[in-house]
Amino acid sequence: MLSYMRFALAFLSAAMLLTILTAPAQAEEKGASPDFSTAPGWTEELFLADSELYYSRLLLKPDTIDLAPTEGMFENAVKLIKSEYLEAIPEDVLQKGCEKELRKLFHAAHVETIPSFRKGSLASGFIEEVLAFTKGKIEPKLVLYAVIQGLFDSLDDPYSTIMSGSSYKEIKEKLQTEKFGGIGATIEAIQSPERQITFIEVIQGSPAAAAGIKPGDVIVEIDGTPVSAMGFDQIEGKMRGTDNSQLRLKVRRAGSGKEEELSLTRKVMVIPSVSWAVVDNDIGYIRLKSFAVASALEIDAALKSLQEKGVKALLLDIRNNGGGIVGSSFDVASRFLDNGKVITVISGRGGRKEEIKVKDSKKTPMPVVLLVNGYSCSASEILAGAFRDSKEITLVGSTTFGKGVGQKVHDLPDGGALKLTTFQFLTPLGSKIHKKGVPPNVNVTMDPSRVGLKNDIQLERAISVAKGIKK
Asked: Do 328 and 412 meet the contact criterion of CB atoms below 8 Å apart?
């Protein structure tokens, strides 16, 4: 059986994942020599302009790489991906990803050709072939860095990555202490049309709000480094820092596409995850901004207050809720579902499955309407899927984000870590959440930046639905 606590922790963040010490993999038997036939010339679509610029900088200052790449690190990553990644990834897909990243590096270094490397030799011979070809042309450290980047890029999964020892240590320290501040915003990696690090929630009164950041704005650079050169955990870590420290962002505005340089000051903020009010005379409204340790208890306080005010129905709003602690979503579900109801199904590689069910239910007697949108992510989607499949709670809004996977971290001998997606969450009836989202029962399309403002048409529709079902 899969461990409830393991998955609750693993879905939160890299620093709080269960870690498994993994020794470097042994190389497989070496293959034959490669055939160095040259490929056609370069085409612009093979690389992004910012990637070429990034590699141009690294060619001048290779020691700025926040990673000590080795052949063993690459081979270890290949073996773990082959054995533990949620889905079986063909070796040729992994190799194409590595070659694509090499093209970016080669172009920046003005290397005009690339050999046709042997297929089916990714772990045992690929690195030797690449290093032999680039000897005297590009520093081996840069070559190894590029193929490791390409290996993870080929997964098309922003949550699987490799972290250097310093980055991993910094992320853990920032997440485990209270002295670090932030900018009061939640980000996510949106995959279409390419990976974009997008703001999905901005807290009122926060540094992010003061800078004019809105949901839908995309981060282009952090402190001068393009986000395309960083893993998602590293990006999240850089958004945090000591209280009153400075952060420079380049963002691309939603709608206009205009890029702007912003300077923000991080602050330590304690923000309750729950707020509540009475709307339309006798309908209760609870806004759940994130799934924190105390969220279920905060909801208890909100329900008690609203019931004392005589409300007849309840709106639970998880729009722009980027998730948080998965175990908290299980606790919140127990306030609205009966004992024994399935909250989610955890599915691992090879068809392993475990059902998480409601225990110690404190179900509210009021009918409930759940508000969701495209920025309701991860833990929010677990709750949305449980509510929708229960057929007891109506969902109003738009289809949720579509993040329904969890990761396991492998510590590396140099102090770094390899984080790999190894399981996913399904709805109680077995529907896939990842890259699909949870659809509402009543679809109402609205710009996520309008949540909580005047003319909130999703809220208005939810009130109308609640009026029809209130006791």
From this structure: no
- Below-50 pLDDT ranges, the chain: 1-49
Locate the domains of the chain by residue range.
4-158, 179-265, 274-402+437-469
Please state, in angstroms and rounded to a whole number, the distance separating the CA atoms of residues 311 and 315.
11
Q: Are 179-265 and 274-402+437-469 in the same CATH fold?
A: no
- What is the reported pLDDT for 55? 85
CATH number of 179-265: 2.30.42.10
Tokens representing residue 343 in the block: 């909250």
Measured at the CA of 100, the angle between CA 57 and CA 23, to 5 degrees, comes to 85
In this prediction the pTM is: 0.73
Domain 274-402+437-469 has CATH 3.20.20.80: no
Q: List pLDDT tens digits, range 252-275.
A: 998 888 999 999 999 987 777 899
**What phi and psi values does residue 70 have, to the nearest 5 degrees?**
-135, 165
Dist. CA 207–CA 199, nearest whole Å: 13
> What's the longest Cα–Cα distance across the chain?
79
CA dihedral (197, 201, 207, 210) positive or negative: positive
What gap in Å lies between CA 308 and CA 24, rounded to an integer?
A: 60
